[in-house]
Design a protein that fits this description.
single chain; mainly alpha; about 290 residues; two-stranded antiparallel sheet; two-stranded antiparallel ribbon; 4 strands
Amino acid sequence: MEVNIATNPGQAEVAETPEPQVEEVASPENETETEGQSEGGGFEQEQAQPEDDTDEVEHEGKKYRIPKAVKPLVMMNADYTRKTQSLAEERKAHAAEREQFQQNARFYAETLQDQARLVHVDDQLKQYQALNWQEIWNQDPINAGKLTSQFQALQAQRQTLAGEIQGKQQKLHFEAQQSYAKREEESRAYLQREIPEWSPDLDVKLSKFAIDQGFTADQIKGLAVNSPQSVKILHLAFVGKQLMDKQRAAAKPKPQPAQPVPQVKSSRSNTTKSPADMSVEEMAKHLKLGSGGR
């Protein structure tokens, strides 16, 4: 506010001057922003969508989206886990085979002495069976009675030894069945994990493929149970052979379809008959043409 003092000292006039008005000038950036917004869309619509930097991985049957940079580490860890499991399965298989071998060794070691005693008893029984019992009874009944008691004792001893050996054999057989069933279950789980399409039908196909490649039936018998790792390698060869056969079939040139043989038509549509084969009408027409139509 400005104060004006009049020339007359007795009078003082106070006047208010209006404040200057400031006009807002839109900057080029603001104008661009305003135009962009007025044209409808704003910057949100004009800006491109960010590129998807994730990838999908599967873990224990479930799918997850993770950053692409992390995927190689996850896949490396999954491959390490798979190889570790495969190595563990191989160790289990070797351990089962070693245990079966040790069981058989223990059985033969435990029964070796029993088998030797059984052979000795059988030799003694043969001597008693070769005696002339009638003559012994006639000559010395007392001695014959003693020999009879000894013979019967040997027979009882042999029966006891044979029963013990048979019992141990049955026990070993039962343990072997249990061990085989366990190994079969573990091998099936390994094959189903390593070969998702594993089935009894595929087992038959792989066996036939192995025989076609030169293996014998005895060599591949029980292979899926005793050496599932070998079956995995056999399956890789089977799949590779199928792929090679498809590639070779695709590379062969397809036979061209046979082109029809063009037929040449005679310039004369009708063949002149022999006069002997002509009818009366045909003969008259023929004579008329021959005479020049006279």
